[in-house]
Amino acid sequence: MERQIERVLILADRPIVSRPIAAATVLEALPAACRIDAALCARVRRYLDRYMHKAGLAEASVEGAAHDGAVTPLANRHGASTDSEWLASAQVYWQPNDYVLVTLGGAGDADDVVATGSMLSAGFDWAQLDVGYRDHWFSPFTDSAMIISTEARTLPSITLSNYRPLTRFGFSYEMFLAEMEHSDAIRFESGFTSGKPRLAGLRLAIEPAPGWSLGANRLMQYGGGARGGTSFGDFFDALFKPHQNDNRDSSDDEFGNQTAAWTSRFIFPGRVPFAAYLEYGGEDTSYEGNYRLGNSALSVGITFPRLWQRFDLTYEASEWQNGWYTHDIYLDGMTHDGRVLGHWGADRRVFVDAVGAQTHMLRIGWNAPFGGYLQLQARTVANESYGINDYERGYDAALSYSRGIRGFTVGGEVLAGRDVFGESYSRIAGFVRFGDEWEAGGAVAEWAEDLARPRGAELFADAGINFSELAIRLDGSPAQTESLGAAAHFAIGARRAVSDRSDLGVRAEFDDIDGDLLLSVRALDYRYRFHNPLAVSVFVGASRLDLATPAYGYYYGAGVQWRNLLPNTDVGLDLRYGDKIARDKLLPSDPPSTKRPDSFYDLTGATLSLSYRW
Q: For residue 108, what are the CA distances in angstroms to 87, 115, 202, 348, 373?
């Protein structure tokens, strides 16, 4: 059902950047989506009907399984593993009036059961307070989240959020305070202290134009034992000045452990709509100032809600540098009950190993003509090789099928793979879920005949040359500048009109930089069109330079374009800057770290290219 709701929101031009998704948000999106895909809307509306009463059963499921081989975490399953013989979850609700909601729930396996979904909620659409076991997912991605996801078991928390966007800019927020599990490995003074660290999360997002959103996320781990809870003044000082508070000579003077990320999501409308999204995060600050992210992570994704009438496809990739979910004060890291709070890929390594990694996920769904939904999902993870542990590339594939039978959804899944230590594993499971959203037998309706790509929505590809200069700082010394001359440049992107003269879009760029590949992604790609063929643009995003280990940094610039030089062909000149693209010195071949443990690369240059659009 999550995939069906995702489709509805894409068809309705609603670019979500977090989960769980409020039922009211989906209800508001249904009218726009129903004009395009009536069969999809019927399934989702049938699912939402369970929430339309004063009291009822919101969700219930039970799963039985058998496994063979190595024990491996199940991604985003609240701490469950392949050896979990059963999984179960349920949630009931009671809504005495429009402003109060009580839910009782739980989720778990044979090892543990947590009251996931048990909450007291009160408030309004612009400010709702949730007290209890609420899940948090700070990312537009469907299969991972660098900051916080459902990889670990749910923490008890107090949450304040809104589900109806505020102001004309579509502002939304979510903030929570949680208590983590007990830890005996919290550094303090000359030894250790025991206690329960606190965890604070903050998400801010805007949706200033249809089909495009931008978000900022923070997670702060602090306190615990003799380290105390810290004052509100210390908390807000660390929130707005992380560089000064988390990079001190003495760990006793540090506030705690922080992560941050920027996210964006762009929806391209038309007969073959899709959503493109990215997440750029950091486990620390970098260089000078509070805005540069250190020990970075970059995730990119694209999802097609419908291909060839019966299929859907999603591809997501992530890569992070060293240091994620580990810390020199909290030696258990940013984990709960042995699972990281964020990306599932970081659980495919030795516990609290600080090594970086890269993951890929491909998911294909099929609305079968004989009824039900068939899904094939493949994942792969590769840890970096510079650490003390030896890893292999891990991978798995899962094939699942579900359909409605007499008021329930039943199905099964077969999973097989090999972990990062070279051990094979497999699991076969069967499940029953409350609700029969597939009672129509997987029917797929024709989309509205008048559905067409809106005017101003374009796909495009660029080809040309780049002229670049690279300033290199290897150990805090003055920069050594290299002029690299001309090299190949290629880009692919999408844009849509958001006003008579303005466009918003996304773009991925590929450049040859002295023999190394530079990948740059634009989270914001804005263009203003004049009445004549001239157009100007500004953009901001992130870059990955493929060095001995990947280097990351901010990427921004501006450009000018002459449109329709030839039919459907434009010529453009972009001036761009890669700001402190950084990597840590982790290899024996790296220069010694006498002043700094990292190296920085400033990229200055221009691209001249032809752009073909269709």
A: 6, 9, 27, 21, 25
Helix (H) or strand (E) holding 2: helix 2-11
Largest interatomic CA distance in the chain: 72
Domains and CATH numbers, the chain: 2-434 (2.40.160.130), 458-613 (2.40.160.20)
DSSP H stretches of helix in 147-275: 232-240, 242-245
- CA-closest candidate to residue 539, choices 561, 566, 563, 516: 561
Residue 441: pLDDT band (50, 70, 90) is very low
Four-CA torsion 363, 364, 368, 372, nearest 10 degrees = 10
CA distance 229 to 395: 41
Interatomic CA distance for residues 475 and 595, integer angstroms: 6
Determine if the pTM surpasses 0.85.
yes
Q: Which two tokens stand for residue 209?
A: 């134009």
Confidence of residue 49 (pLDDT cuts 50, 70, 90): confident
CA gap 179, 138 in Å, rounded = 18
SS3 at position 235: helix
Q: Using an 8 Å Cβ cutoff, are 552 and 542 in contact? A: yes
Distances (CA, A) of 429 to 82, 114, 426: 10, 21, 10
